[in-house]
Amino acid sequence: MPLWLGGCNLADSANNAINVASVKFSEDSPAVDGQDMVVSGNSLPPGLGNFKLKMVFHVKADNTANSGKAEFGSDAIQPILKLHVNSRSSASIDAPIPAFSVPPGDIVTLDFPIEVPVSSIDKATLRKIVNGEPIPYFLSGTLKFNLMDDTVLKGTGSSTLELASGEIATRPSSSVQKAISALL
């Protein structure tokens, strides 16, 4: 006789959790666009902490192995990825992205807007960015998700994401370029 707890058959819950497959992520084309540097604060005199690097990673999410919707994060808890600038081995920068979901049995294209403080980028790489030199960007992380059937939790899982942009140029506007150059 199965054990029932709170209206949930533990044997069925265990089977559902075992059957959860990973959602697969890959780069879309283009992998990244919208690179820009923007002023993010009003303090005078400005410091590197007043500027942010922005870009959008375009991602394909494949949920064809699951019969439930994969929900990543929520309004209260955003998924956090790691951005590596110039090299996979560079220090990672936390990059929160909005919560998202992938319909069951579907492949969708998602946009992950990334915004990080330029003060978290090493100065040699930041000089390259300000000068418009092309550099690669890497986005990685492990994203936890809930597999849902309507509003019923079918199981949980996690997926690994490893994306690379290739070398792309990021030249800020002339006023931002002058302001950041003066701080380097």
What would your notes on this structure say?
It is a single chain. It contains 3 helices and 11 strands; from the N terminus they run E-E-H-E-E-E-E-E-E-E-H-E-E-H. The N terminus is likely disordered. It has 184 residues and is mainly beta. It has a single domain, classed as Sandwich (Immunoglobulin-like). It is elongated.
Kindly name the structural category: mainly beta
Radius of gyration: 20 Å
Instruction: Indicate the CATH architecture.
Output: Sandwich
What's the count of strands?
11
Q: If you consult CATH, what is the topology?
A: Immunoglobulin-like
Largest sheet: 6 strands, antiparallel
Measured between the Cα atoms of the first and last residue, the distance is 70 Å
In a nutshell, what does this entry contain?
By secondary structure, the chain is mainly beta. The chain contains three helices and eleven strands. It is elongated.
Identify the notable features of this structure and list them briefly.
3 helices; disordered N terminus; 184 residues; mainly beta; 6-stranded antiparallel β-sheet; single chain; 3-stranded antiparallel β-sheet; Immunoglobulin-like
Record the SSE blueprint.
Blueprint lengths: L3 E2 L2 E2 H9 L5 E16 L11 E12 L6 E4 L7 E6 L7 E4 L3 E3 L4 E11 L5 H8 L4 E15 L2 E17 L5 H10 L1
Antiparallel strand pairs: 1-2, 3-4, 4-9, 5-8, 5-10, 6-7, 6-10, 10-11
